[in-house]
Design brief:
The protein is mainly beta. The protein has one domain. 12% of the residues lie in helices and 56% in strands. It has 2 helices and 14 strands, in the order H-E-E-E-E-E-E-E-E-H-E-E-E-E-E-E. A 14-stranded antiparallel beta sheet has the order 8-7-6-5-4-3-2-1-14-13-12-11-10-9, covered by helices on one side. The radius of gyration is 18 Å and the shape is globular.
Length: 248
């Protein structure tokens, strides 16, 4: 298999990693609008690099839209999540995902129907409805919920091995996402050096995939670094290079 073919075979996992890096919001329920940029490094037998941008905008009706765009070689990804914040709770409204690889496009949409506790999923030209529970999140809003919880939990309670669990509408199923506090590190960025909380995605003992995310309290718990390792030894990394608050 050529390096190019190998890259394409791993791109779905790479784009999943790009989704993870969206976790950047203010340390209180009054979210701050921002723009951020990340560089990426992928070890697929050769060294590849890419970039990703994201933004959080508050709409006139008080809702928020989080958008990310990423590109590398012949592939691109765009994702957006529309949500409301009420009583310190994130209430997803609509989630949209689109990935292009060469001439192939995958689109996914998830529409939340809170009065009926259901979501409508649309993917691959098909639509179906599934039940959800109160507090269910989408794949981007779960990232925001985790960051809000880290910011709002007293420092003494954010101890080693503390876990967070969330219900997520993902791939037409209701899944539990679990995260564990794994330690602290000082991370170097173009913006400076930041003491950061290291979070590990807990996929269970049978999973060979590992993901770590570093949140910097000095930057309102923005993500400064992400590392993902696959079962076959491949490694992906994201690094914060720019962060601009739009409401200052």
């Amino acid at each position: 298999m050529s390096y190019f073919q190998q890259f394409l075979s791993y791109l779905p996992r790479i784009t999943t990693l790009l989704l993870i890096m969206l976790w950047s919001i203010s340390s209180n329920a009054s979210l701050r609008s921002f723009e951020a940029a990340y560089s990426s490094q992928w070890d697929l037998g050769i060294s590849l690099s890419g970039k990703a941008k994201r933004s959080l905008i508050k709409n006139q009706d008080g809702s928020y839209r989080l958008t990310t765009s990423a590109s590398a070689m012949v592939a691109s990804l765009t994702e957006s999540s529309l949500f409301n914040v009420a009583d310190d709770q994130i209430l997803p409204v609509h989630y949209r995902y689109q990935r292009k690889i060469l001439n192939k496009t995958r689109k996914v949409e998830v529409a939340f129907e809170w009065p009926n506790l259901k979501v409508e999923n649309t993917a691959g030209g098909s639509s179906w409805v599934m039940d959800i529970v109160p507090g269910t999140l989408d794949k981007q809003s779960v990232q925001m919920r985790l960051q809000l919880d880290l910011a709002q939990t007293p420092k003494a309670d954010n101890s080693l091995n503390k876990t967070y669990h969330y219900e997520v509408a993902d791939g037409g199923h209701l899944k539990t996402y679990s995260f564990i506090i794994d330690g602290e590190d000082v991370i170097e960025t173009p913006l400076g050096r930041y003491k950061s909380i290291r979070i590990k995605r807990d996929r269970g003992v049978e999973s060979d995939r590992e993901t770590w995310i570093w949140f910097a309290p000095q930057l309102d718990y923005s993500i400064v670094k992400i590392v993902q390792k696959e079962a076959d030894g491949k490694r992906y990394q994201l690094n914060l290079v720019e962060l601009k608050w739009l409401d200052s």
